[in-house]
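Lab notebook: predicted structure, single chain.

Context: the supervisor wants predicted structures on file for every construct in the current expression panel, including those that have not yet been purified. This is the next one on the list. No modifications to the sequence; it matches the entry in the shared construct table.
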Amino acid sequence: MSEATYDVTAIGNAIVDVLAQAEDSFLHEQKLSKGAMSLIDSDQATALYGLMGPGVEASGGSAGNTAAGIAALGGKVAYIGKVADDQLGEVFGHDIRAIGVTFNTPPLRNSLPTARCLIFVTPDAQRTMQTFLGACTQLGPEDIDIQLVQDSKVVFIEGYLWDLPEAIEGILKAAKAAREAGRKVAFTTSDAFCVGRFREQFFEFITNDVDILFANESEILSLFEVEDFDTALEKARGLAEIVAVTRSEKGSVVVSGDQTDVIPGQKVDVVDTTGAGDAYAAGFLYAYTQGKPLDVCGKLGGLVASEAISHYGARAEADLKALAAGL
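Prediction complete. Output recorded below exactly as produced.
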């Protein structure tokens, strides 16, 4: 196997996040499913944006957040995702490149606008996401840079892409290329509602292509359609080479073969849970690609996730390299 140029290439929905505080009553009035990600059309996006309070805008998307986290840790990372040739597309591209991520996916021209995710953060720090996918829906196999994938130790893929038929073809192309090059494939199930929509497809993809699986507790319970965490964890063991499951304040559990590492949660004042899972994957994958043991991977994932939930927005405000050095 040749030496890898990149630690990770991440593939996902290139989305500009707009975060604002909201009360539970607002979610009820707008009939929004608290804590979930729901897809909306352009008219709904415009109407909800008009109802939002003061917001914070930043380039985002699940895999994009993970890529940014890995770069902030000092990793070599690339990103594949579709934006439009418009103002928000320029914002996304400038933002993600500025943090050190290689991003060369050709923009969509004269068509759908760049995607945006309206994130409503309630006082209990839960985030409810309403996503207009726009240009994301045009991500296809022609956007997958095979050389980039094969030059990366790990290709990281987000589950949200399963809402896009064209993207699935691209994902399978990337996974095949990674396997042929002897690289690893990492996958996050993204959202319990996403798991509910694509359970059978996820099982097939994980079984055939995935080496490292990320999920939170609700997602792993949904995946196996059980109510007991220990039962779900045992079912997950062996589904992929490595399975990392986050459990909010309880920390995380990492299983690989007969090995089990229980990582305690970090004490932190939770402000906004947006991007917590993305941040965990960033810390984990950075440590993994540096050859660290799985318990260290889980610990760094937890530290980076704790930093992410201590402030508004998914991007780190603290020095992640200093956090990593502390381990």
